[in-house]
Amino acid sequence: MARDAGAFAEFVAARSGALHRTAYLMVGEHALAQDLLQEALTKTYVAWPRLREVTNAEAYTRRAITTTAISWRRRKSWHEQPHDELPDRIAAPQVDTDTRAWVWAALQQLPPRQRAAVVLRYYEDLTEAQTAAAMGCAVGTVKSQVAQAIKKLREHLGRDADLLPLDELAVTR
User: Fold this and answer.
1) Which of 57, 105, 133, 167 has its CA at a distance of 20 to 30 angstroms from the CA of residue 118?
2) Torsion angle, CA of 40/41/42/45, rounded to 10 degrees?
3) 150, 154, 151, 157: which is closest to 96 by C-alpha?
4) Given 44, 77, 110, which residue is the final one in a domain?
5) 68 & 116 share domain
6) CA 86, CA 66: separation in Å to the nearest integer?
7) Does 103 reside within a domain?
8) pLDDT tens-digit profile of 25-65?
């Protein structure tokens, strides 16, 4: 398939909202999500002639979002944020009583691959096989990453985590 700018533009117009949501869930900030989506769409555009079917474009872009988000989070500077004043001590994060904020705060604490696995499986409702394809790993790795993530979420949320059914993780922000 030759590079077709019109077909790519249609794809972006139709799917950019859902892809931005995925990017936001991966990085937790709107501006970073826009940057992440832009980078993933650039990679998709470059690969556009190699895609056998246009229907593969979304899966390709999701994988680009996932792998790019993971590589961004591995960078040392990812966690560094400038401040005018240094705090005397680090304050514990405040957990809102609203379930969404509560789960969201816990999700932010997960390592990049675990967070990606949870986002793709429960927020994006992908199958284990689709999640594995997006992450570029085996289905067993997805199962392992999700299990470890759920364990960490339960530890972070404490005894109240048992009140949440697993489907509750799929609440959108």
Assistant:
1) 57
2) 130
3) 157
4) 77
5) no
6) 33
7) yes
8) 888 889 999 999 999 999 999 999 888 787 889 999 999 99
